[in-house]
Structure formats: structure tokens, C-alpha cells
Design brief:
Blueprint: H1 2-9, E1 20-26, H2 40-75, H3 77-106, H4 114-143, H5 145-157, H6 166-171, H7 177-184, E2 204-210, H8 222-226, E3 234-244, E4 251-262, E5 274-281, E6 290-301, E7 304-314, E8 329-338, E9 342-351, E10 373-379, H9 380-414, H10 421-426, H11 436-448, H12 455-462, E11 464-470, E12 476-481, H13 484-517, E13 522-526, H14 530-540, H15 546-559, H16 561-571, E14 574-578, E15 603-605, E16 612-614, H17 615-625, E17 631-633, H18 645-648
The structure holds zinc ion (ZN).
Amino acid sequence: MELHRKKKQKRPPKKKAGPTKRFVYKVHGSLAHGFLLEGAEEFENQVACQLELQNAVGNNERHRRSLCMEVLRERYPNLAHLECEKDRLDAEVDALRDAAKARNAQARRKRATPEESAAIRAKAAEAKAAREAFQAAKEAAYADPAVKDDLKAVNEHADWLDFRKYNHLKRTRNMSAHSRAIVMADTRGRRAGRPPKPKTEEVECRVGLQIKRARLAPLLTPEVFLAGGARDCQVTVLSENTVGGSNGGVTYTKRFCEIRFPLTSRNRGYPIVYCKVRVHIHRLPPRGSAIKQLHLHRAKRGPSVRYELHLSVEKKDGFAKPDVPDTGVVAINLGWRQTEDGIRVATWHAKGASTAEVAGPAYYPLQQVETDSGSLVLPQAEVDRRWRYVEEIQSRRDNLFNEARARLAEWLGANASIVPAWLAERTRYMAQWKASRNMEELVVVWGVRRFAGDESMYRYLHGYEVQRGVRPDGRPRMLFEGWMLQDRHLALQMEGQRQRANRWRDYVYRRFAIALRRRYRKVILANTNWARLARNEEKDKPEDNKSANETSRWNRRVAAPGRFSKILGEMFGEAEKVEGKNITQTCSECLHRDAFDAKAEVVRTCHRCEAVADQDARAARNLLAKEGTGTLLGVEPAPAPEPEEEEAV
Ligand SMILES: [Zn+2]
């Protein structure tokens, strides 16, 4: 009986969540007129709180580590000695660097001389060896069971803000303290590694809420949402119009909406603060899906700011499109290889193509796929036209910057008697400034610390508007002169152009994915960590071949394989990620693996079986052979939804 009662009291198991997907809508607005019609202050407030909390966790972790180190130092005097040695060498490297920098600043050189570089390099190698010795000794000390108890006491001290729970914190940053504590007790997805440095500003931030359906609606479908079925969220459709239909495509309704939702919880004794934004709902989440969460997202890119409304949508039977066949597997190898025609971004190899005619709307004019292998190349002309323009603007900015720097240096020399100490100090290493950011900071500081006699120079550095001709409608055509305003204007233009180019690339990638998806049900991708790969490549690049490095980096940025991988993973009926190590090095015929310079030999003859194959085609074949050995995407349960505020408190 007792047992029976206990069993009854158990909470029902959590319902398994279906796959979720995020739908992104751009918030209408501008830098000049603002993006939030209501609640801007509260948004800023919450963003600042999130940042403060994140920094607190980082600082707490740094403190915990320093306490641990103190314990270790006491127990192992040798460790303390190694640490001293490491710090001494690091300081010496810094001293050498600073001395070289000061000498070169005087000589107005940007780079260190070869002798200086060689001396710095030798010292840095010494420092690295000392660092590694210290690291090894530290790891050995941590592994010693005798110190465990001592460290335990230290660790308990720092429990609530455990750094390993940093990931949770990111997920929970807009919750009440109580709800946060519940989620923080969860131990999945802990973060390892060094704590991040305290930030003064978050480039990407978001504030959101769990939205609740109205009492009568069983599911908060997109249609119910638009009709105002969400309990906390008011949706007003301001206008709608039908677009599309060209080139045999489908027509769809584009809505311009005003959405008002609470930024604060209703149960803290304070009035609710609402946020109101205007968005273009250009495509609704699919029928039968349920809207779970809503986030207001802000991203800063240089001088431009973008606000987006994100709807997290769940669909029990997945987001597979109607034009997905039942059979066929395609393996796609991604990359950024320069070829004669352009940048080769994907090579694919497939089996078991479906011959059935698939029904589905014609989203875009598609290229026809008829063979079981091939590649996707971004045409050189398009790449040049779209991305080189970005470079052109950058070079104009560089020229303006160099001119401004030269003029300022000349002015400082000629007006040494009136230049205040802070300005002289700030411009000491000006010859080495590479980014316009330093100059911009200087102008901002100068703006609040004006001094007698600085008018002409400050005006030039800050920039001003002048009339240059007349527009066709009779209004004056105003343009910027001077440095900062012109530079900001160009920076905005550059960012806009870059975003346009990226949108075009995504369009090409989606079209490619749809064309393949109509013949093959499943896609196989490598589990490469593209971000880490890029970081490592930046680190290991050989110094001698600068232009080749530049081209490779440039192509990688244009190709954006990480983005491509994400698009492909989302668009097929099924997706699997398999181990991507050594897939270009292994012969797809006899599985013989030999190391060779991947950049020099694109087409490779196998040493053992003499099969001749293009590296990328080989990689695609190898990926296909690995089908069934990796992890399936989109079938793992989605992360548990955030607890509802009302229930938690
Ligand atoms: Zn072989």
C-alpha cells in the first residue's frame, strides 16, 4: 500500500519534445529612429544585468582558481618555483616587445626589424617551454589524491556561481533568480576551459519569454498566434500583401505586424513592462507547429545594429518538407578550394537516388540534378562582383585613415606648444595604429576634452557635412567631409554590402540543397568543427606565403562552410554527421591512407592501388561509406523548455 501510494505521487514523465526550429524576423526600424516602440529602457536594463551576471561568474571562477593555486603552491614548493620562472620569462618577452615597439614608433616603422623578431622569437620559445613545464607540474599536482580534500573546501566556497554551469547561465539569463537556481542545479552541458575575460559590452544579446497559449486554443499554432491567441502577447497585423508567384514559384502572404510582449514577469510586485516592435512576417512557421518561445535579439556589427524577433517553434513530426523522397543517400564534402571557375564549396557523391516524381512547391528555379556525383562552385565573376566591392570600400577607408593619421601627426608636430599631455600620451604609438577604432576613440575623448587652438584639427577629425550639388528634387545633396563621419558612413555601407553578399550565398546554398533533397532523402556531413578549424588555420599559417594565406582566408569567409553545413542539416529529410578526420587523405578504393600536401596535390594517385581521384571527390565517397556510423541530426530531443515563471515562484 505504502509503495503504491508513493508510485502514485510520482510526477508524470515529461512529454518528449519534438524537433524545434527558430524562425527569424527582422525588426523594422533604424539607427536614427530606434527599433523598440516601447520598453527600450527595460531591454537595455536586462541586457546589462545579463552581462553583469556573466562577468560575476567569470570573476568568481578566476578567484576560485587563484585560491586553488595557493593551496597547491603551499604543498608543492617546486610548482611555485616553476611558476616564478614562467612569469619571469613572460615578462622578459613583453619587455623585448615593448622596447622594439618604442624604437619602431620613433622610426615610424610598422614592423619590427628581423633581428628584433628573431630575439623575441627565441625568448618566446623559452617562455613556452617554461609554461609547458609548469602546466605539466600543475596537472600532476591536481591529480594527487592528497590535495583533493583541501581543494574540496575551496570549491564548496564557490558553488552557486560554478563556472562549469556557465552554459546554463547563458540559457537562463532572462529568468527569475529562483527559476535560474532550478536550471543551474542541472549538470548537463557544463563548460570547461578558461573563464572569459569580463566584457564591457555584449555584441549579441537577447531577451525573451516563454509564451503561453490562450485557454481555449489547444496549440499555439502560427495562425492562432497571428489572430492574437497568445495570452501575454498582442499581435496586430498592420498590413498584408501577397507576393511571389514568378518563375512558377508559390505565392505567399507577407504581413507587417506590431507585436507587444512583456519583458518582465507579472509576479514580482512591479508593473509589467512591455516591449513593442514592428516586424515583417515574411513566412509563417509550417502548419501544425506550435510556438514555444519568443526572443528579441540584438546584434551589433561594427556601427550597424540589427534587431530580430526569434520564434522558437516545435513540430512533433519534424520539419521535413513535402518534396522529400523515401530513399537515397547523398554525402557532401564542404570546403573552399580555389578552382579555375571559382570557389568550389561542395563536392557530393550519392547512391540510391529516388526516381519518383516528388510533389512540392517550386520555391526557386532549380538546377536539375541527374548524376550521382558533382560539385557546387560559386562562380568567380559573382564572387568578385559581390565581395570585392566590400574590399574596395575597405581600401577607401584605409586610405582615409592613413591620410587622417598623417595629418594629425603633422599637426601635433607643428602645435607641440598647445598639445595637452593626455593627447601626446594617447598618440604616442599612433604610427602603429592599424584599426580606425583607435582613432575613433581618440576623437570621442577629444570631444569632451577640447582645448584652445584645436578647432581646425578637431573639426577635420570629427568630420562635417557639406553641400555638394543639388538633388533632382531640388533638395541639397549633403556629403561628409573630414574623417570620422565619412569613415562611419563607409563602414555602414560596407556592412550592408556584406550582408547582401551573404544573403545571395545562402540563396545559392538553399537552392542546391533543395535540388539534391528531391532525389535523396538523407544527407551525410562531416562532423568538422568549422570555427575551430578556422582558428587553428589562423594560428598555423606559414609566414612565408602571405598571398596564398590571404586567398585561402578570403575564400573560407566567402564559402562559410559552417553556415552551409547548418543549412544542409536542416533542409533534408534526414541528416547524419560522421567522423570527418582524414577523409581526404584516405583512398576511397582501397582505404590506404598516406600523408601529402593537400594544397599542392588536388588530384591524387593512390600509392597502393593507383586509383586517381580528386581529393574532394574522394572525401565525399569516404563520407558516404561512413553512413550509419555517426549521429543523426534533428532526432535528438530538443533541450528541455525553460520553466514557466509563474509556476516557479
Ligand atoms: Zn588506393
